[in-house]
């Protein structure tokens, strides 16, 4: 009796925690935007676990149904499952990419294996796959419309592509490989964020800033000020720092130094070194491909894409190779001539962008610095919106007083040509070394989906 009471109290405690967890509550915000300011690091793991439990219950309801598999009770039911998990992980997945810190890294190390294991359990669930297969095999006789037919076909192929046709031993092997790959890819990205943030180039004398734009110099000075190095200039390894520096900095030694650091991130035989991780990921990806019946991992990745296989990719590369090489060689002639005028006999990779910019100035009498005012962020954003409106008739209206995922972000409501609301887009366009994933990328907090026939 005592044991039952203890278990009941534990269950009630979990329910109480769930009720207090803002990730698991209804979001009474404009457009259902996540109330970002309410989320704490400690909310994520319990919320993901709760959402996984809910998704497992949905899957169990499908596979334990006594009814004959139909489009509604199997295909549609599966397609609409996992709403809570998508809601919760949609938030955390974006936090990983745009607000990374050591606390987030620790949470990622817990959540990533949970998500990987749960995904494996679904994709390799034989009972679920067999129900999907029943509907797939008789799809032509069910009177499905084109959207329903595509959903059935793509769902079946997705399960098949992820190993549902394998024998039990192969499934166990695939689960292990998938989990290892997932953990290694997480470690790879964490190392890259750390290494990118850890290295900086400090310019101590004003002459070292020669060639750099006024805006770049101002940003570098502000970065130095924030790092407690007033009166100096700090340049990082984020793309918005490295690329303009390589194109404009007159100091060749500094260009070589920053390019070398940029290219050798996670290749410095330290705690963030990724060489062994890369080798292991490559080995495991090949093993996964072989388990699934493909010769290479490339063929596995391309099987459901336009290229279809590696042969088609190589054919395309060979087709463009000669004209691309000819164009590059012509460009190299200009670069060598300009470099020679500066006394450089052997062109270094760090010279390419620099003399490429000079060649453009010489040929067309225009510089990147002259073009920059036209490509301020506000101008580019409005240009994107203008093109989207011309092509698709959609418009964007800035939203004020709504929750934002980061102070740097802006929110816009996207409207259709008839004025109806299509969704909300966040724009977070500036680099944050050590906090935000590098490069250009986009993701989603909530995807489009059908629910209750809408």
The best one-word shape is: globular
For the sheet with most strands, the description reads: 3 strands, antiparallel
Distance between the termini: 48 Å
- Calculate Rg over CA atoms: 27 Å
**Fraction of residues in helices?**
55-70%
Please report the total strand number as a whole number: 5
Q: What class would the helix/strand composition place it in?
A: mainly alpha
Q: What is the CATH T-level topology of the domain at 2-167?
A: Neurolysin, domain 3
Number of helices: 17
- In sequence order, what are the helices and strands, one letter per element? HHHHHHHHEHEHHHHHHHHEEE
Strand order of the largest sheet: 3-4-5
Main CATH class of the domain at 2-167: Mainly Alpha
CATH architectural category of the domain at 2-167: Orthogonal Bundle
Query: Which runs of at least 5 residues are low in confidence (pLDDT < 50)?
Result: 1-14
Strand residues, percent: 5-15%
Q: Give the overall average pLDDT.
A: 93
Relevant terms:
454 residues, mainly alpha, Neurolysin, domain 3, two-stranded antiparallel ribbon, disordered N terminus
Q: Please, could you describe this protein's structure?
A:
With 454 residues, the chain is mainly alpha-helical. Among the domains are: 2-167, Neurolysin, domain 3, CATH 1.10.1370; 168-318, Neurolysin, domain 3 (Orthogonal Bundle). Helix content is 60%, strand content 6%. It has 17 helices and five strands. The chain has helices at residues 2-20, 44-63, 71-79, 83-98, 102-123, 126-137, 146-161, 168-198, 214-226, 239-248, 252-263, 275-291, 297-302, 310-341, 349-364, 368-371, 377-392; strands at residues 200-203, 233-236, 395-399, 410-415, 421-427. The strands form two sheets. It has a three-stranded antiparallel sheet, covered by helices on one side. Strands 1-2 form a two-stranded antiparallel sheet. A hairpin with a 5-residue loop joins strand 4 (410-415) and strand 5. The longest helix is centred in the last third of the chain and has 32 residues, at 310-341. It is globular. The protein starts with a helix and ends in a 27-residue tail after the last strand. Residues 1-14 have low confidence and may be disordered.
């Amino acid at each position: 009796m005592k044991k039952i009471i203890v278990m009941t109290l534990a269950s009630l405690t979990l329910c109480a925690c769930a009720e207090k967890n803002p990730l698991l509550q209804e979001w009474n915000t404009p457009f259902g935007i996540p109330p970002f300011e309410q989320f704490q690091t400690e909310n994520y793991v319990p919320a993901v676990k709760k959402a996984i439990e809910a998704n497992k219950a949905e899957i169990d309801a499908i596979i334990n149904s006594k009814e004959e598999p139909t489009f509604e009770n199997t295909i549609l039911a599966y397609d609409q499952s996992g709403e809570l998990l998508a809601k919760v992980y949609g938030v955390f997945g974006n936090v990983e990419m745009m607000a990374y810190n050591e606390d987030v890294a620790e949470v990622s190390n817990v959540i990533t294996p949970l998500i990987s294991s749960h995904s494996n359990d679904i994709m390799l669930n034989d009972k679920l796959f067999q129900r999907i297969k029943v509907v797939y095999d008789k799809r032509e006789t069910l009177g499905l419309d084109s959207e329903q037919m595509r959903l059935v076909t793509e769902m079946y192929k997705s399960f098949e592509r992820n190993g549902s046709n394998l024998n039990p031993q192969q499934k166990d092997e695939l689960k292990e490989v998938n989990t290892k790959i997932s953990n290694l890819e997480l470690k790879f990205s964490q190392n890259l964020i750390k290494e990118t943030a850890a290295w900086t180039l400090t310019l101590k004398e004003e002459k070292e800033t020669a060639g750099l734009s006024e805006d770049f110099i101002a940003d570098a000075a502000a970065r130095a000020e924030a790092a407690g190095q007033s009166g100096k200039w700090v340049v990082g390894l984020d793309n918005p720092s490295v690329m303009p520096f390589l194109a404009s900095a007159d100091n060749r030694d500094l260009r070589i130094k920053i390019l070398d650091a940029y290219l050798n991130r996670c290749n410095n035989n330290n705690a963030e070194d990724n060489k062994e991780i890369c080798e292991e990921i490559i080995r495991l990806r090949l093993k996964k491909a072989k388990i699934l019946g493909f010769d290479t991992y490339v063929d596995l990745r391309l099987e459901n894409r336009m290229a279809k296989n590696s042969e088609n990719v190589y054919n395309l590369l060979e087709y463009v190779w000669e004209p691309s090489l000819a164009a590059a060689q012509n460009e190299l002639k200009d670069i060598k001539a300009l470099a020679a005028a500066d006394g450089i006999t052997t062109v270094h990779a760090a010279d390419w962008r620099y003399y490429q910019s000079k060649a453009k100035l010489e040929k067309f009498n225009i510089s990147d610095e002259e073009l920059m005012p036209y490509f301020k962020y506000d101008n580019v954003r409005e240009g994107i919106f203008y093109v989207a409106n011309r092509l698709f008739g959609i418009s964007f209206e800035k939203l004020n007083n709504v929750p934002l995922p980061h102070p740097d972000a802006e929110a816009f409501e996207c409207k259709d040509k008839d004025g109806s609301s299509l969704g909300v887009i966040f724009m977070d366009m500036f680099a944050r070394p050590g906090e935000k994933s590098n490069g250009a990328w986009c993701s989603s907090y909530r995807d489009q989906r059908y629910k209750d026939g809408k």
